[in-house]
Amino acid sequence: MTRWFLILLGTAALTGCGYNDFQRLDEQTTSAWSEVLNQYQRRADLVPNIVATVKGEAAFEQETLTKVVEARAKATSIQVTPETLNNPQAFQKFQAAQGELGSALSRLMVVSERYPSLKANEGFKDLRVQLEGTENRVTVARNRFIQAVQAYNVLARSFPSNLTAMMFSYQPKPSFAVQNEAAISTSPVVDFSKK
User: Fold this and answer.
1) How far is CA 44 from the centre of its chain?
2) What's residue 195's pLDDT?
3) Looking at the chain, which terminus has fewer C-beta neighbours within 10 angstroms, N or C?
């Protein structure tokens, strides 16, 4: 009788420890991270075609194109491994490089508005639509990753699963953060008195 009670007690203790939940959520974060990388790669693959199309515009600003090419080179030069998810510094470096590429592409699209012949170019229109679609996919993939990391981190910090986390060294994972938090938290000044 005591033996069965101990087996039952042991089974109950193991089911409440969260070990299997850590395995499941770790796999979800890895899968979500792979999708983020996939979408970033898709965006990086579009850049050479966009740059080649824009270069055809004789008067286009070379500095803008150079910044896009440099940002792409920096973003694709970072070696991403599964350990990137467990290294906040490497994760931050990757996030910063992707942010620079996104900013450079945004500037390119804004500047391209000044060139009517470029806006009328069918190839550029198609690439622009593909880039916009890819940016949307990046956003969706990042949101899924953020949710997966949140679920994992809650498990790692909640009692009693935090004891399992300590025992098996399951550290909270870094997630995407807002790059310019101070700048976006400041309310914009709107002055209608100027004409």
Assistant:
1) 13
2) 45
3) C
d(CA 10, CA 149): 29
At 39, which CATH number? 1.20.1440.20
**pTM, two decimal places:** 0.76
**Sequential DSSP letters for the chain:** -HHHHHHHHHHHHHHTS-HHHHHHHHHHHHHHHHHHHHHHHHHHHHHHHHHHHHHTSTTS-HHHHHHHHHHHHHHHHSPP-GGGGG-HHHHHHHHHHHHHHHHHHHHHHHHHTT-HHHHH-HHHHHHHHHHHHHHHHHHHHHHHHHHHHHHHHHHHHSTTHHHHHHHHT-PPPP----TTHHHHHSPPP--TT--
Residue 169 lies in a domain: no
Task: From 171, 162, 138, select the one nearest 36 (Cα to Cα).
Answer: 138
Does 153 map to a domain? Answer: no
Domain assignment present for 154 = no
Tens of pLDDT, residue by residue over 119-154, are 778 888 888 899 999 999 999 999 999 999 999 999
Domain membership of residue 31 as a residue range = 25-142
Give domain status of residue 76, yes or no: yes
Tally of domains in the chain: 1
The tens digit of pLDDT for each residue in 78-132 reads 888 877 888 888 888 999 999 999 999 998 888 888 888 877 788 888 888 999 9
